[in-house]
Write a structure and sequence with these properties.
By secondary structure, the chain is mainly α. The chain has 2 domains: 30 residues; 170 residues, Lysozyme. It has 8 helices and 6 strands. The strands form 3 sheets. It has a two-stranded antiparallel sheet with strand order 1-4. A hairpin with a 5-residue loop joins strand 2 and strand 3. Helix 5 crosses helix 7 and helix 7 packs antiparallel against helix 8. It is elongated and about 85 Å long. The termini are far apart. The relative contact order is 0.13.
Length: 224
């Protein structure tokens, strides 16, 4: 074998090694976790009976997901856009104030819906999705009269919708949203990062949240 052939082989081997290293590097930047397609969520209703809700998820999701406008105004579009706004859909994020996961839950809110083990919560994407549903159901029950009264009206130049109310309740709590609506926007709220109820009412208006059933006693049923 002449020197020219040897040089070509060495160059080819070097190129292959670089491609392998780049591929491994890219894979190491992605955390994957398995979620069931059409996952079933059990929800406790007001009469303490258990019903099953369907939630669509993908079988393998990257560490960070990019919200897709192709989801439109569906419920999946609603929760994925909210998750992206809160954490860029990062299930494992803890912010500077200690809020947890994809939807940035506070510990006190998690306790209200039956979750006390925050470490398990942070490391279990499926549980975070169940928590989002339960919290939205509880907020819808607390705000049920305000939803009936204010949906369709305009406050601070923004049309009030049910999805806007529920998103704002996720940000500021249902009590904060009540004050905002009943004061016709004069009693506002901003979180530590400057995000306001008005901002969420506008950003998340017009989504289909009909699948959220108002439930005073909404809890997450944790599989042991």
């Amino acid at each position: 074998m002449n020197k020219k052939s040897i040089a070509k082989l060495v160059s080819l081997a070097f190129t292959i090694c670089i491609l392998i290293i780049v591929s491994l590097s890219n894979n190491s930047n992605i955390k994957e976790y398995a979620l069931l397609e059409d996952d079933t969520i059990e929800v406790q209703q007001l009469d303490n009976t258990i019903v099953q809700e369907k939630t669509v998820s993908v079988s393998s999701i990257g560490y960070k997901n990019v919200f897709s406008p192709e989801l439109g105004k569906s419920f999946t579009g609603f929760k994925e856009k909210l998750g992206f706004k809160e954490s860029q859909n990062d299930y494992f994020r803890v912010n500077t104030l200690g809020y947890l996961g994809k939807y940035q839950f506070g510990r006190s809110t998690l306790e209200l819906i039956g979750i006390n083990d925050t470490k398990h919560f942070l490391n279990t994407p499926e549980l975070q999705e169940k928590a989002f549903i339960a919290n939205a159901e509880r907020n819808k029950w607390v705000l049920r009269r305000d939803i009936k009264r204010f949906v369709g009206k305009s406050i601070n130049g923004i049309e009030v919708t049910e999805s806007g109310i529920l998103a704002a309740a996720h940000l500021a709590g249902p009590g904060g949203v009540k004050k905002y609506l009943r004061s016709y926007g004069s009693n506002g709220f901003e979180d530590a990062y400057g995000t306001s109820i008005k901002n969420y009412m506008k950003r998340f208006q017009g989504y289909d949240t009909s699948r959220i059933i108002a439930n005073k006693k909404a809890k997450v049923l944790i599989n042991v």
